[in-house]
Each structure stands twice: as structure tokens, then as C-alpha cells.
Write a structure and sequence with these properties.
2 domains, 79% helix, 238 residues, Helix Hairpins
């Protein structure tokens, strides 16, 4: 029974390694998705910066058209001054010219502010573009590395799974069946040592009679609390 227990523990080592490899494999798609999300986020930020720049340029263009309209109105009213025949009409035209000049001055201020804003947004967009180009290559390389790791893990798992199945099939049914049943229910180890009269799987105290049965080593013994197979390290080492 001692040699059989060692064989069963060797099988468990294989299973725990398979658990670890499967956990790594399951994590890969999430890692790739995170990197792709980072790329898409950077692209979106770049697109938004470009849209903001384009919108400001369109506003500036419209303001410049409005400015041309005001300048045209000033020229027209100035030309019309020579044609008026009454003082009231003359004063009215002067009022229109002054109003147009005030509008022109306000528009010129707005255009200058827009030019400064466009310059700032343009620099920000260029910085984002440069940063994106620099980081994208590295992020795409990370995706490629994770995809390569995924294939490597799949190949490793396939080989180790075949080895595990061969080791499992070599065990007698009275050992493999209980072990397999516990593995399907319990996470992690199905076989655990007893330490200080406690099952190291559930940390509950085991009876002295159970310890004596384990020490005799005539059959597989399960923990009274968690049903894991238990053993004594000193018995296996003897």
C-alpha cells in the first residue's frame, strides 16, 4: 500500500501541475483582451483629439467668414456715407459702421483665441499620435507573445495530459476510482497528509482510530470531515 500511495501521490503531482497549466491557459485570452482594449482606448483618445481639432478649425473658418462679412458691411456703409442727404441718415450709417466695427473687433479676438486653442490641441494630438505609434508596436508584440504562449501551453498540456492518463490507467480501480471521484468534487489536492492530528486539507482534527488505520496502511483512508484521502508522511518515508 505504501508504494501504491506513492504512485497515487505522483499522479496527484501531475494533476496539480495540469491544474496550474490550465489556469495559465484560461488567463491568456483575458490578458490578450486587456492589451487589445488598451490599444482601442488609445486609438479612441487619438480619434477624439483629432475630432476636437477638426471642430475647432471649422469654428475658426466660420468666424473668419463672419469677419469678412463684417468687413464688407463696414466698407459698404462707409461708401454709402457719400450718398446720404440728411443728417439723420448720416448718423444712422455711422451707428451701423460703429456697430460693425465692434462686431469685427469681437470676432478678431475670438479668432485669435481659437488660433491659440487650435495650436494647443494640435500639439496635444501630435503628442498622442507619437505616443500611440511608440506604444502600439510594443503592445502588438505583447499580444504576439501571449498567442505564442497560448500555443505552447496547449502543446504542453496535450503531452502532460497523455502522460497523466497513462499513469491513471496503470492504477488499480480501487485506488483510481476514489481518487478520481474526490478530484471531481474537491479543488486542488485529493490526497493530503495528516499534521499534528489534523487533516491538512480541511484543518479538522482526525480521530486516533483513523490515524491508526492510516498507520497500518492496509487500504485508502478518507478524512472523516472532508472525505479527502489522508496519509502520514513518516509512514511513507519509513
Amino acid at each position: 500500500m505504501k508504494d501504491a500511495m506513492k504512485t497515487l501521490l505522483a499522479l496527484q503531482d501531475r494533476d496539480l501541475e495540469l491544474d496550474r497549466l490550465n489556469a495559465e491557459l484560461r488567463a491568456v485570452p483575458g490578458k490578450i483582451a486587456e492589451i487589445k482594449s488598451a490599444i482601442e482606448g488609445a486609438k479612441k483618445a487619438l480619434e477624439n483629439a483629432k475630432k476636437e481639432l477638426t471642430a475647432l478649425q471649422m469654428i475658426r473658418k466660420q468666424k473668419e467668414l463672419d469677419l469678412e462679412t463684417q468687413e464688407g458691411a463696414i466698407r459698404k456703409h462707409s461708401a454709402d456715407l457719400n450718398a446720404v442727404k440728411t443728417n439723420d441718415a448720416y448718423r444712422a450709417l455711422l451707428g451701423e459702421i460703429e456697430k460693425a466695427k465692434q462686431g469685427q473687433s469681437a470676432l478678431e479676438d475670438e479668432v485669435l483665441q481659437l488660433m491659440e486653442q487650435i495650436d494647443q490641441v494640435s500639439r496635444s494630438w501630435k503628442e498622442k499620435e507619437t505616443g500611440f505609434k511608440a506604444s502600439e508596436a510594443g503592445l502588438l508584440k505583447q499580444i504576439s507573445d501571449w498567442e505564442a504562449k497560448q500555443k505552447e501551453l496547449e502543446q504542453t498540456l496535450a503531452g502532460k495530459q497523455a502522460e497523466r492518463q497513462a499513469a491513471f490507467d496503470a492504477l488499480p480501480t480501487n485506488m483510481s476510482a476514489p481518487y478520481d471521484r474526490i478530484r471531481k468534487v474537491k479543488r486542488g489536492a485529493a490526497i493530503v497528509p495528516i499534521h499534528s492530528e489534523q487533516c491538512s486539507g480541511c484543518h479538522m482534527r482526525v480521530s486516533q482510530s483513523l490515524i491508526n488505520e492510516v498507520r497500518r496502511g492496509q487500504k485508502l483512508i478518507a478524512c472523516e470531515s472532508c472525505s479527502r484521502i489522508v496519509y502520514l508522511e513518516e509512514v511513507l518515508a519509513a
